Amino acid sequence: MGLLRIHFTADDVARTTVAAGADPLWEVVLSRFRLQDRDKAPAFRPWERALRESPARLSGMASGLRWLTALAPEAPYFPDFLTPAAARDGLEAGLDALRATPSPRFRHELALLARHTPIPAWLGALADRPSAPVAELATALAGYHAAAIAPYQDLIQPAVEADRAWRAGHLLNSGVEGLLSSMKPMLRWRWPVLEVDYSVDRELHLRGRGLTLVPSFFCRRVPVSLADPDLPPVLIYPIDAAFRWQPGERTPGSVVALMGATRAAVLQAADGGATTTELARRAGVSLAAASRHAKVLREAGLIRSVRRGPAVLNLLTPLGSGLLGSLPPASK
């Protein structure tokens, strides 16, 4: 295990932010690693099982998987051109940026990849004649995303949003230091350096550019960043395990106790995050009642409660988001 040391200035602290959501191209690359994991984490098993049970989706992702296997092998490096910054604005924006990558950059990053792992001869076309091969790569990645990522947004998106709401609470309550402290033990903040558990040893100087923290469903164990220190600094981090629905975590019988209009209203009130006082106000119940209902929801695995300063913030889990979406309008 290595260590990434990110060096901040005062300007960098002021410019550190949490991305609005997961980056689609980072999720494409990282999900490819989850498919090859030898120890399958419970959080990814429903996704992988659904993929393997769908021949049409496996066929749709096959071309993308071929490219990703060659460009993102089990090695301490994969090319930065796979994850352009423009993808923060969506998959198509990211693919447009990929298509616009200049030939010298393809050649340079493929040469870096070749230092770590043998690369197939057919990848040479990407360096020598980029227009047609890069169009093929972009189409393959789009097909992979359509088959392996897009159909499972009801599993992925609520988990990422819940984690981001939790981090945002720390940022609003305690500033950037509180945000970074919420990510222990994988991140350790000791001004002016953020130490990050990483696959290799690295030093990254932000130089006033700030840092964008990007939540990821498919990132696992340790965060990941771009290899080129001159690119806009990002740190892709795995969302907290508590926001992933893992089978067997619910208290038996608690979901049955959940049924009823008042408790459903409290569940609805937790959408987007709410303190217990806010739950009471939104659901139109007393503070004591809101606290009781929140306890049942928490035991059922439908919300997670975390401390934010003197208050407790209640956040929907992916399971809670799924149940909320199935409630009839009158119950919301």
TrEMBL record:
InterPro entries: ArsR-like_HTH (IPR011991), HTH_ArsR_DNA-bd_dom (IPR001845), WH-like_DNA-bd_sf (IPR036388), WH_DNA-bd_sf (IPR036390). This is DNA-binding transcriptional ArsR family regulator. Keywords: DNA-binding. Residues 257-325 form the HTH arsR-type domain. Coiled coil: none annotated. GO terms for molecular function: DNA binding; DNA-binding transcription factor activity.
